[in-house]
């Protein structure tokens, strides 16, 4: 506004000067430069409307090949290509790969189509719910497209979690018929989750497929009956890759009968008495293990670490006698 006023003032002054010079003969008339026209206000261009629907965007993205295959197998592609609007919490290919071994193949069988459909509908919320809206639903539940199926929502340290431990990692991928939010795990409807939780810690680890070395070690240490007991127990479970990262020969040596006590001590150092969920872990600085020795806990950038450098990579796998948290390296007791 100030710039425009200054311009007009200068222009007015020039006009007055020109008028004054009309009464006084000038040696040579000079041509005045044409004033630059003020730009006319223009409407701010709006973004082009999104033309692709949820299914098309997921298919082209490249991170959701398993989800798209599941949607097609369940006969839901046409539904999710409809007008909507829908909000889809989309698990990545890695999220599906983290399911217990064989679970996905089983779900894709024709005879399990209804079960697959129910799981997929549990990832859909009617309406277009943007990230800003989700963040205001802390402590509340949202109805899904699965009849009677609700998901709980919580916010923690700026992140949004569904059903306590499924993290929303990317938000607001808009489509012509709704919006996609990316999640890092597959959501299981209450009936499915309850069925999974009906197994104890040992059976859950066996069925999962990522803990074959841990299971073998538990059997060698004669801890199977203990970890099948009433508990509850919290087990920080190293994956097969975590055991493989031990120095060469270490695992073979631990599995020798003469080293049974050392193996037992290491395994007990991965067990905490009681059921300690992820939301509890982040409030702790240490935990006393079944070995009687403490493991240090720290939270850094939203991630949980044990003894400084062992990361908790998956949390809250509930079982009938406790909970499993997956870790990326083997914990060694302090000497």
Plain-language structure description:
- The chain is built from 16 helices and 14 strands.
- It is α+β, with helices and mostly antiparallel strands and 335 residues long.
- It has two domains: 139 residues, Roll (FAS1 domain); 130 residues, Roll (FAS1 domain), CATH 2.30.180.
- The longest helix is centred in the first third of the chain and has 20 residues.
Key terms:
elongated; 14 strands; single chain; FAS1 domain; 335 residues; 2 domains; seven-stranded mixed beta sheet; alpha+beta
Give a quick summary of the entry.
The chain has 335 residues and is an alpha+beta fold.
For the record, the count of structural domains works out to 2
Helix/sheet category: alpha+beta
Q: Order of strands across the widest beta sheet? A: 2-1-7-6-5-4-3
Number of strands: 14
**SSE topology string:** HHHHEHHHEHEEEEEHHHHEHHHEHEEEEE
CATH architecture of the largest domain: Roll
Describe the largest sheet.
7 strands, mixed
CATH fold type of the largest domain: FAS1 domain
Helix content estimate: 25-40%
Uncertain runs are 1-46
Secondary structure topology:
Layout: H1 2-21, H2 54-61, H3 65-73, H4 77-80, E1 86-91, H5 93-97, H6 103-107, H7 113-121, E2 124-126, H8 131-134, E3 141-143, E4 150-156, E5 159-162, E6 166-175, E7 178-183, H9 190-197, H10 201-208, H11 212-220, H12 224-227, E8 233-238, H13 240-244, H14 250-254, H15 260-268, E9 271-273, H16 278-281, E10 286-288, E11 294-300, E12 303-306, E13 310-319, E14 322-327
Parallel strand pairs: 1-7, 8-14
Antiparallel strand pairs: 1-2, 3-4, 4-5, 5-6, 6-7, 8-9, 10-11, 11-12, 12-13, 13-14
């Amino acid at each position: 506004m100030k710039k425009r006023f200054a311009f007009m003032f200068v222009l007015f002054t020039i006009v007055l000067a020109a008028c004054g010079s009309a009464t006084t003969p000038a040696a040579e008339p000079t041509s005045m430069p044409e004033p630059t026209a003020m730009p006319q206000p223009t409407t701010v261009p709006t973004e082009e409307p999104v033309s692709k629907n949820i299914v098309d965007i997921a298919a082209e993205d490249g991170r959701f090949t398993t989800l798209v295959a599941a949607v097609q197998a369940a006969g839901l592609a046409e539904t999710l290509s409809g007008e909507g609007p829908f909000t889809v919490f989309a698990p990545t290919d890695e999220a599906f790969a983290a399911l217990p071994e064989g679970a996905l193949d089983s779900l894709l069988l024709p005879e399990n189509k209804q079960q697959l459909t129910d799981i997929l509908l549990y990832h859909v919320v009617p309406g277009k719910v943007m990230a800003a809206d989700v963040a205001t639903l802390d402590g509340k539940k949202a109805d899904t497209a699965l009849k009677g199926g609700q998901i709980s929502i919580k916010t923690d340290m700026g992140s949004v979690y569904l059903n306590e431990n499924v993290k929303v990692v990317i938000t607001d991928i808009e489509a012509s018929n709704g919006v996609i939010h990316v999640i890092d795990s597959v959501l299981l409807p209450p009936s499915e989750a309850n069925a999974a939780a009906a197994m104890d810690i040992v059976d859950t680890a066996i069925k999962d497929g990522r803990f074959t070395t841990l299971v073998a070690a538990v059997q060698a240490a004669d801890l199977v009956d203990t970890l099948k007991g009433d508990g509850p127990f919290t087990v920080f479970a190293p994956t097969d890759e975590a055991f493989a990262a031990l120095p060469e020969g270490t695992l073979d040596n631990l599995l020798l009968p003469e080293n049974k006590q050392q193996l037992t001590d290491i395994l007990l150092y991965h067990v905490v008495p009681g059921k300690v969920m992820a939301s509890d872990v982040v409030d702790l600085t240490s935990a006393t293990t079944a070995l009687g020795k403490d493991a240090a806990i720290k939270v850094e950038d939203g991630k949980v670490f044990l003894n400084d450098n062992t990361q908790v990579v998956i949390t809250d796998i509930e079982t009938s006698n406790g909970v499993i948290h997956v870790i990326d390296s083997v914990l060694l007791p302090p000497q």
